[in-house]
Amino acid sequence: MFFCVAIGVLISSSLAVTRELSLYEAVSGGQARLPCNVTAPSVDDSVSLVLWYRSDINAPIFSVDCRHGPLENSQHFPSDYLGDRGTFDLSTQPALFIIDPVLPEDEEEYRCRIDYRRARTFNVRMRLQIITPPTRIVITDQNSQRLRNVIGPYNEGSRVVLRCIAEGGKPPPAVTWWRNSMLIDNRYTEIGNNKVENQLFLDISRQDFKMSLMCQASNTNLTSPNNVTVNVDMNLKPLDVHIIHTEQHFSAGQHASVQCRTAGSRPAAHVSWFKDGQLMNGSKDVADLKGLWTISTLEFTPCSSDNGKYLSCHAINPAFPNFTRKDSWNIDVYFKPEAFISLKLSHPSGKLHEGDDVFLECRSHSNPGITEILWYFNRDLLLNRTAAGILIKNQTLEIKNVKRRHSGNYVCSAENVEGRGNSDEFKLKIKYPSTARLSFHPYEKQVDGSHSDEISEFQNRFNTKDLANKSGDCLTTEDNPTFQYPDPYYPRLKTPPAAVRWRVTAVSHPPEQEDIIRTKDLTWEIKDEEFRMNNENTKPFISTSSYPQVCHQDEYKMSTPV
């Protein structure tokens, strides 16, 4: 291949005709083709001799001798300079002087001399320019680290700086950047040492993932340009995140599973689960081989307190720590009712007395709503009994004109589609006037200081005194408490005991009304006149006319609720 450029110089001679000087290019290592028209100027004329000269060599470098025959049968004589690299092709029009392979030192001015048998000698001058392609092309980053094949990964949205350096080449090559066969940068600079550089600044986006960048260095159209290609790898942000759930609601205490799918991240995104901002554990991730999507499965057991909370799935590419793509879902958790009882009174005093109206309200927390409420009293089902003052309406139990028999444990039971939940027992206490009772338990103290064990057998066999409605709730001598020795003991009673100790116990009735129960021992010396026989049954008894006053409020600190 060759390329001709007319340079507009005309050389004349009185002995020969010379055409204007032309420029021909050849690539080092290829072929140089220099044309020379050997057609005779007239039909009665013919070529006798063709000589090729190089301007810096006096002798011909190639000769075609046709003096003894037609041109087609001529003899060809290359010089030692060319050897077998030089040929003259007469089969083309015009004929071509071929140097193959052409070397850089072949660059020079050449002349083709044509001697005709009758016409004047004809000279054609031309210049051969040898082009040397670049010897190497190197792509580096901005830190001069060489890059090959796949480069990166670079973060989406970042700026990439690439340097393409072409070494060698005559003339200096044009260094250009191409993207997918499209020219994107043709600005290059000679940087010395026979090098040319083109520095590319490229702001890359998601669409540039896997793009092909080619650096091309060319200083001739005679051959294909030298080039180096790299493919850009990138870190990509997650494009979307979507929570996948087949159930519209969960049931508290039952195993639940939910999935989150994220796509578009490279490498595969890390998926985290949060419940109202609190990190959850127990998820498993599966990513595709190319890392463009990830499916995370979360398994957990919801509880009633999770109802209404936000379950969120966060997708993060570690290359973008400050960027998160997320999806949230307001979870609906069904759970059986959690019930409790609250008390309301018909008056603001805060105390519950006989005759008051009582309102017990069954409050509950449930999802979905309550379908039925039942009431229990001391484990027995309560029903509406208007005549007895028991009214059940919605979640409220009303007891009119409450009595002491209404004291006890109440439970409300609430039901929804998830099941039934019972409240804790609510103990209802009704305050009413109580009856206090003093019990006297005697035991004997002998003169010698010893105690008689037998007397304990007669415990609870003596008079007791109800003190209800007594002024001051006191036991006085008017009550004349008397201890009478029973039959089994009477025969053994030889002498009056020196003293009798009375154990006095204050007990309220009924027992659940007790606030304080105390016991106090009282001792009286027994005088002879106080120990006497009962005329009715001739059994001894002790009359305590000197018995001191005993008040259960003062002595025993016992309060009687009203």
Automatic annotation (TrEMBL):
Top-rank taxon: Eukaryota
Topology in membrane: Single-pass membrane protein
Main location group: membrane
InterPro entries named in the record: CD80_C2-set, Ig-like_dom, Ig-like_dom_sf, Ig-like_fold, Ig_sub, Ig_sub2
UniProt entry keywords in alphabetical sequence: Disulfide bond, Membrane, Signal
SUPFAM superfamilies: Immunoglobulin
Ig-like domain segment(s): 13-123, 134-231, 238-332, 337-429
Signal peptide region: 1-16
PANTHER family: OBSCURIN, SIDESTEP PROTEIN
Designated name of the protein: Nephrin-like isoform X1
Species annotation: Limulus polyphemus (Atlantic horseshoe crab)
Gene coding for it: LOC111084911
